[in-house]
Amino acid sequence: MPTNPSSALSALGRRTTEPAISWLMKMALEHPKLISLAAGFTDNATLPVAETLDLAREVLEHARSGQSALQYGATAGDPTLRELTAKRLHRIDTGKTLRTLPPTHAPERVLISHGSQQLLYILIEALCDPGDIVLVEDPTYFVFLGILQSRGVQARGIRMTDDGIDLDHLETVLGELKRSGDLPRVKLLYLVSYFQNPTGITTSLARKRAALKLLRQHERAARHPLYLLEDAAYRELRFAGDDVPSALTCDAEDRVLYTSTYSKPFATGIRVGFGLLPEPVLSTVRRIKGNHDFGTANFLQQLLARAIASGAYDRHLKTLSERYARKSGAMMHAIQRHFPGNVLCRTPRGGLSVWARAPRSLRTGMHSAFCKSALEHDVLYVPGELCYADDPTRRKPNHEMRLSFGSAGEADIRKGLERLGALLQEALG
Amino acid sequence: MPTNPSSALSALGRRTTEPAISWLMKMALEHPKLISLAAGFTDNATLPVAETLDLAREVLEHARSGQSALQYGATAGDPTLRELTAKRLHRIDTGKTLRTLPPTHAPERVLISHGSQQLLYILIEALCDPGDIVLVEDPTYFVFLGILQSRGVQARGIRMTDDGIDLDHLETVLGELKRSGDLPRVKLLYLVSYFQNPTGITTSLARKRAALKLLRQHERAARHPLYLLEDAAYRELRFAGDDVPSALTCDAEDRVLYTSTYSKPFATGIRVGFGLLPEPVLSTVRRIKGNHDFGTANFLQQLLARAIASGAYDRHLKTLSERYARKSGAMMHAIQRHFPGNVLCRTPRGGLSVWARAPRSLRTGMHSAFCKSALEHDVLYVPGELCYADDPTRRKPNHEMRLSFGSAGEADIRKGLERLGALLQEALG
Known about the structure:
Two copies of one chain form a homodimer.
Chain A lengths: L10 H5 L4 H11 L4 E2 L12 H12 L2 H7 L9 H16 L15 E4 L2 H12 L5 E5 L4 H9 L3 E5 L1 E2 L2 E2 L1 H13 L6 E7 L12 H13 L1 H4 L4 E5 L24 E6 L11 E4 L4 H12 L5 H13 L1 H27 L5 E2 L7 E5 L11 H8 L2 E2 L1 E2 L16 E5 L5 H19 L1
Parallel strand pairs in A: 1-13, 3-4, 3-7, 7-8, 8-9
Antiparallel strand pairs in A: 2-10, 5-6, 9-10, 11-12, 12-15, 14-15
Helix pairs in contact in A: 3-12, 6-11, 8-9, 13-15
């Protein structure tokens, strides 16, 4: 009897499907001349190559600091980086520079991770059992949906408005879950609150406050805390408008789990994310991280601590902001020029992409004629359907596209959108 | 009704206890003059500070290679590093330099991770459900026991001989599990096969081959593959004797999961581990890693790829080997001089520690009078009990100590062992 090799896999192993990103990468490989408006990569030309060498020199030119950077550190992260992170976030959140930080922004609450993705993963491990429910924006970050699916956790979509999550719909869904007795299975609401991936929408503070209040009102029926997981990964990729304070600024009850990253704004090859977490989530996440890797690579943490302390990090944000303003401008200009008027796009103020909504009659999914035709013309986008949870309460939308200006150059952006525009005109006109 | 904050935690979150390492670190903080023979840190003085700066310069002084290092990479790892890893491992395993590698050592089988710890974690995720059983050496690497405990997986200890795992006992245990109908819950046998943590024992190739054969014979009753997980984390920390080929060299049936690391031999602050895995484990692990972090920090991978390609890595191994030979020699010399004759220690040929076995009458555990007294004299060791699984089939041994020469300097090693020796003489004499 030959043994089936797959039969040794765990339930999690069997559930974990090939991620959407593999399909996107396969398409890129099969079309060598492809203009990818799908990649989540950042802009190559802005990567801080010289700055990183300077930082490496500072860290490594003295034996003592060099040895400390090349040795193991603590699981929670480098103490200096944790403190810099808490102070910096508090300053951005409040505009103030205080000596003693409030509990929500205490350095002890900071946990450093191998990119913020790792923290999202561990948070779901720490809070959710298979069969639990996580409320997500509809649409949302597709790799997060992959985590939930792999771990047997159900996603339930909450509609969005231009100002962030639709509070009426949140209330309706919470009410339905309460009536059906499913509220104890709900652990958290996940918001990508700044320049949301994929829609680009930023959630206002008022809306975050109201969402927290709604969650709080349902805790009695849930019989446990209902957390707001605020994923601020794109917060520092802002090139227009003002910053919005984080949900931490209105978190009187230790219900906000804040995650963000230094990788996307600084260098995606240097994976350092962070979170500010209340107890008992903090200790639980730290222990689980101890089992994952007992701490993020110390060398990377020390490079970033230097970048922040020296001002190199903030200077780099300025460069980024100018560059992405120009590239997103080029994209919006090409869209206006080439896209039919019934394809709606919101002008981005940050992040790495534009969300394009075609009339419902046009299908944009992975297996659609339109997507195939775009690939034949060497253009790839992220089909909108990938960003929607499997939610039996609504039909999965399949008429949108995420168009990224992160990695493609301006000429390619123009060329790609011209081709896509022609195909849209043909399909819709 | 106040909500209990812990009530939102998942079963995994609740199960994940504070790791032993936290207790060890707390002891170190409470005793500022402590000589720690407990830390798993490597030797600070040998960390390749200047070499790393040279590598960083090579990677970052040209925009093109710098940008590539600072950008995201593929989830499975940098293709160059994967190929170098496969070739190097094959050369070490066989002494040959082939152009085309056999399937067991194919570059496609290599997966790069954020330290080998991450790979151990994901392998357990991929293969084990709560309630499953993993066979481990008795004693074994205590952080691995933490992973199993956190994930609700049972550990079952297999006795060791001086030559590695006790094959008779392995056969007995497999037979018992077969009779009790528990074999389908067994997924793998975990061996720390080189300079085992904590005993220092290296498993011979004959024994690995025989263990594979025994596992294979029980697959019918298990109804799935039974894997041999070979953790070779200490393989390159060898300072005496010859290397032993890995279990991959006798893996005709795709049953060996090989994990190792560049972090411990090169720099623990640069976390880069790797594995060579057969399908379908490889794809499953890669997908799960996609959810964890979609790839290990590219910058670190490119530093290591350069270190290996340029020979800097191999040169560094030579430095390490000389240094650890001297430090372990100092430790063995002090043990001979100060320890009573009935405390047995094996002369190490690699790794970072010596395993000391006192008569059973002496308890060495965390809460023992002996351990307290050692701490009062500012000496800390890893109590042997921490390295044993909770296994109802035997009483947990509590009369051993792991004494590390990794991080302490030679003077501290001598002083620490003199003090420990005096306490042992007092307790046993």
